[in-house]
Amino acid sequence: MEENNQQQLDIELSEEVAEGIYSNLAIITHSQSEFVIDFIKMMPGVPKARVKSRILLTPQHAKRLAKALVDNINKFEQLNGKIKELETAMPLHFGGPTGQA
Hints:
This protein is of the alpha+beta class and 101 residues long. Strands 1-2-3 form a three-stranded antiparallel β-sheet. It has a domain at 21-80. β2 (35-41) and β3 form a beta hairpin. Helix content is 26%, strand content 21%. The longest helix has 22 residues, at 59-80. The chain has helices at 15-18, 59-80, and strands at 25-30, 35-41, 50-57. 3% of the residues are buried. The chain starts with 14 loop residues before the first helix and ends in a 21-residue tail after the last helix.
């Protein structure tokens, strides 16, 4: 029998976190040591929006996340067809360093 040298990670998911948070806008900023992704829910006709979740990542984790996201989008499009990109008409200036997704 071949030995498996990989450790298995036991990940716990609480009910609250499992429900998820809807976001239709992400603002990405960075410094030399971290990337910050703010997930926001915009409502039609409402000029004010709140950050619903903020994720802090090291640059290495941000790069791995970007690669994993591209890989998953490619797999999704192979099964479901090309994702249509919508133009946003709203300015994405929120008083911090520029960055958007």
